[in-house]
Amino acid sequence: MSEPNIYLPLIEKFLEYDMEAAGRIFESLPEEEVAAIFQSLPPALALRVIKHLQISFAASLLKDADDVFMHAIASNLDPQLAASILMHLPADARERLTRQVTGKLRDQIREALDYPEGSVGRIMTTDFLSFDQSILAQEAIDKIRQLAKKRYPQSYAYVTDTENRLAGVLNMRDLMIASPEKPLADIMHPDVFSVHCFMDRQEVANELSRRKYFAVPVVDSDNHMLGIIKAERLIQGVQEDVTKDIQRMFGAGSDERVFSTLFFSLRKRLPWLYVNLATAFLAAAVVAMFEGIIAKLTVLAVFLPVVAGQGGNAGAQSLAVVMRGIVMREIPKDKISGLILKEGKLGAINGALVGVVTALVAWLWNGNPYLGVVIGLGMLFNLIFAGLSGASIPLLMKRIGLDPAQSSSIILTTGTDVMGFVAFLGFAVLFQSFLV
């Protein structure tokens, strides 16, 4: 095996004859020797071989390859497979592989690796044990024994098909007592629980807690196995996400810590306090425009916080739903306008229902039915605006390259306050002859 080029024609013939068997034999041999053989193959043949290897093993064969060979392989890999291999490479080899791909393929790989903030894909580990479902029990046992010499054996072993799609999970007891010639497809448990790589960490944490699992496989939309998520890492990740989300929603930097320096905290918080101050003055300026009608009807001042508060709450509901959709990538570009319209319609329905109740309360309280009409109409218009702005603000921030979670609530609250005041006090001006 020390001179792979001498045997290259024979190796190529064998590979052409039975690619799957050759892949299994490769995985049973020392990595250094297989790497030498693999890098001597024509790139087209090497590309076919790599599809029949475990991702971690394929990465080990590529990590020390020269740039010419790596370019020939990387530029023709399936984007999802390339992304999976990339995650298993050490930092220097990952950088070299990334340099070998350009254009559309690079964008596709980057998209596959760009897991949303707060998803399990961000914190999963690619250090997992998997076997092709066609290999025999004895081969799997030999491989596990070989791996145990280098590191601690994995708690779970997963089974995949030829396209690296998750097919099942192995029970070690079933594997040990099975006939040596039995394929893993007949031994595995096909009903395996997995989570999508975009799934929110909190949801996965709840599922693991309910099922009493300490690890779970992570897959993509086509059920390709990408990694595993462990319970202890998940708990740590959920704690980090909660604190970051709270800080960003209220204008503090997500990278600020309890014992950050005074000036670091000041630099992170002060700009958003100025933004909040400017928006507060904007809302105050709107109220000042209607100073005359408020002086005539001081009861209007009583209802100002009611209109503003309901608008802020309704907008926050839309904001929360859309933010989750952005994180989970559930909002394609061609459905953005439909989503905003739907939230506007929902705001109109909520505004009508809440407005009727508010109008009745105002009428009974003040004795003037027209005051009820004014506040009811103001509530209707404000909740329509709240639905539209709650959906559009995070989408707009994402479109212009800003973090949608970064103080969207400050912008939204200002918008609903201003709109609520304009609608409520504007209708009061129109109906003032019936109110005074």
Quick recap:
This protein is mainly alpha-helical and 436 residues long. The protein has helices at residues 8-17, 19-28, 31-40, 43-50, 55-62, 67-74, 79-88, 91-99, 103-113, 137-150, 172-177, 201-211, 231-249, 262-289, 291-296, 299-327, 336-366, 369-399, 408-430, 432-435; strands spanning 129-132, 157-160, 166-170, 195-196, 215-219, 225-230.
> Roughly how many Å apart are the termini?
100 Å
Indicate the proportion of strand residues.
5-15%
Number of strands: 6
Shape: elongated
Summing up helix and strand content along with how strands pair, one would put the structural category as mainly alpha
| CATH class identity of the largest domain | Mainly Alpha
How are the strands ordered across the major sheet? 1-2-3
Order of helices and strands: HHHHHHHHHEHEEHEHEEHHHHHHHH
List keywords for this structure.
436 residues, mainly alpha, CBS-domain, Tetracycline Repressor, domain 2, three-stranded mixed sheet
